[in-house]
Amino acid sequence: MERLKGKKEKEVRKALGEYGISIENLLLYSRDNSIYVLTPEAAELLKQVQVKCLAGFYLAKAEKAGLRLSFDACQLFAKQIKKYIELDEKQLGAWFRGEDISDEKARGLFGFFVLKHSEDFVGCGLVKDEKIKNYVPKDRRIK
Amino acid sequence: MMAAMVDAFHNASHNRFHDEFQKIYNDIVERISKMGKRKQKILPKPEFVENIVLLLKDKKDVLAFFDKCYEEMPFSIRANTLKIETEKLAKRLQRWDVERQDKIGLEEAFVIKRWLEPGELGNALEHRLGYFYVQSLSSMLPSKILDAEKHSLVLDCCAAPGSKTTHIAALMQNTGAILANDISWQRNIALASNLQRCGVVNAIITSIPFQRLAKQLKVKFDYILADVPCSNEGTIRKNLTIMKTWNKKLCLWMSKIQKSILCNALALLKNNGTLVYSTCTLNPEENEAVIDFALKRFPIALEKIKLKFEARHGVTEWKGEKFSEELKKAVRILPQDFNSEGFFIAKIKMEK
Fold first, then answer.
1. pTM confidence score
2. HSE of A44, CA atoms in CB hemisphere, 13 A
3. Which of A31, A37, A130, B334 could form a disulfide with A26 if both were Cys (CB 3.0 to 4.6 A apart)?
4. Which numeric CATH code is attached to A1-82?
5. Architecture, CATH, for domain A83-143
6. Does B244 score more than 50 pLDDT?
């Protein structure tokens, strides 16, 4: 895992800003295309732990279409999120079954959007060709 | 002549105890026989009952203990305040007839009073969104008692599957750092998954034997939680067979492991730092004896634990062995006092 600095860090913070998320108090890390966050104190501790470890909260994945927020980041930063599409009850059921969703609201849009139902932010989907591609992790789907 | 008299006295008192114990054991068996067929099949081992009799001394108390052990434990959950406010969750979960537990000092805890279908908790939308963690009330106490300040450095020695780690992170409002270690990679998969589900951003997970980790670490901690592996006597309500398979050798073996973990953890505690030692077991070999062992080797003192419900003090004598008077400051939580699991908790302060 590598600490993000300089241009790369700016790019990620800018992409987060598009969702309305500002997390200046957290440090960003990347492994492959995945972005993780850690508190400054945890980052300092990480330097001192000289054994194999797992660190950080999985925040997002850098994809061709933009930055895809992780399922859990959608609730953790719910109060800041501004870029979202609302789902109705029926669509929510389909979303948690792992299905892609057709929605008129997606017409003319492209890229990653957070999905919202009532007060809940329920993950991030790729809006393309009037469809919302499902990214709900398997362990959170309805069994 | 004198020795023979002492022996005779001991034998007489042993026989008296044995007769008394036999009566209590028969009473317990009789009470169980009136319960459902499933419960009737699981009788406690006499040696286990004997240990509980020695610990509680009072017959009524012993019977109350076993009555509670055979009673279903209500489901309890903890609001994950990193993702939702407790009040909001309370409103959402009215459908389960939840009862808040703030009167006993667990502001973010709920007891579910409605009967739930199997899987109903885990499949709930609120669970999938990480708004709550299914956890027994007793198991929420160690993190509360640790009371780690924001921005501090915390070590969780035996962290998986993460109920207490996620609780500590929430109490610290996701600041500072938590080093969460567990010996098993398998269990750490669950730990990592729970940290992610709860939105914890201040944790690092390691997976090596704690004694080895302690030797490699060059850093000291403000707070340490040593919720050590144990013989699980306190979790009988979830698994009655523990009473059937209980054996003294396991307790003594566990005690050795616990002493090693505690001493290694204390070596990593800062001056004035706080360590909470907890187990979900009741026998003094795994509790008071472990703390007493550490008290003789480290410049530490116990801090009195204030709870908002009745709990027992730690014992200062067990099977002829005397422990430090400091142990009175530790608490033993019994299922008949607090409608949850049995637990033992001691709060240790490192002196300068």
1. 0.95
2. 13
3. A37
4. 3.10.450.720
5. Roll (3.10)
6. yes
User: Does A97 reach chain B within 8 Å, measured CB to CB?
Assistant: no
- Nearest chain B residue to A25 by CA: give it: B175
Q: Is B230 a catalytic residue?
A: no
Strand ranges for B143-259 from DSSP E: 153-156, 177-181, 203-206, 221-227
Q: Tell me the pLDDT band of B118, cut-offs 50, 70 and 90.
A: confident
Q: How far is CA A60 from CA B27, B61, B195, B234, in A?
A: 60, 54, 16, 41
Mean pLDDT of all residues in B206-234: 95
DSSP A70: P
In the predicted structure, residue B8 carries a pLDDT above the cut 60 = no
CATH 3.10.450.720 domain locations along chain A: 1-82, 83-143
Report the residue from A48, A53, A122 with minimal CB separation from B219.
A48
Q: Which residues pair with B350 in a beta bridge?
A: B300
Cα dist. B34→A28, B28, B45 in Å?
61, 10, 18
pLDDT on residue B6: 47
Tell me the pairing of strands B317-318 and B177-181. unpaired
Interface membership of B196 toward A (CB under 8 Å) = yes
